[in-house]
Structure formats: C-alpha cells, structure tokens
Design brief:
The protein is mainly alpha-helical. The chain contains three helices and no strands.
Length: 86
C-alpha cells in the first residue's frame, strides 16, 4: 500500500484526534479511509438519484404519467432507491 501525505489544517487534524480519542478509530489512516468510503457511497447514491430523475423526466417528456400521483409515494420510493442503488 502506498503512503500519501496530506495537509489537512487545524480543524481536520483536531477532528481526527477526537475520533481516535473516542476509540472509534485506531489511527488517522482509519479515519481518512472511513471518510473516503462514506464520500464514495454518497456519490454512488447521488448518481443513482440523478439517473432516476433523468428517467422520470424522459417518461414525462413521452407523456407517461400516473393517475394516482402522491408526493408521499414519490418520496418513499426515492428513499428506497437511494438506500439500494443499482
């Protein structure tokens, strides 16, 4: 595994120290890896939401609508899709 040096600044250095102090992480590397995994996961969910939005816009452009529209159903379905991308 390669080593990369990062200049994080005082705010993030203190954040990392606090995370290690809680015992949640054993090292700065673990904190950074966890943050990068979260960032990657959020990006994937955002990409999935954008794809679903584009699909919905295309369907609307084709005149494909539902008669029993409910914003609550839309929000619930979007949440399910975001939780299970792919």
């Amino acid at each position: 595994m390669s080593t990369t040096a990062l200049s994080l600044g005082p705010h993030w250095e203190e954040f990392i120290r606090r995370e290690i102090a809680t015992g949640r992480y054993a090292s700065a590397s673990e904190v950074v890896r966890a943050a990068l995994r979260d960032y990657e996961d959020k990006g994937k969910r955002l990409d999935a939401l954008r794809a679903h939005l584009a699909e919905g816009i295309e369907q609307a452009d084709r005149g494909e609508f539902v008669d029993d529209f409910s914003i609550d159903k839309v929000i619930a379905n979007a949440g399910k899709r975001a939780a299970n991308p792919g």
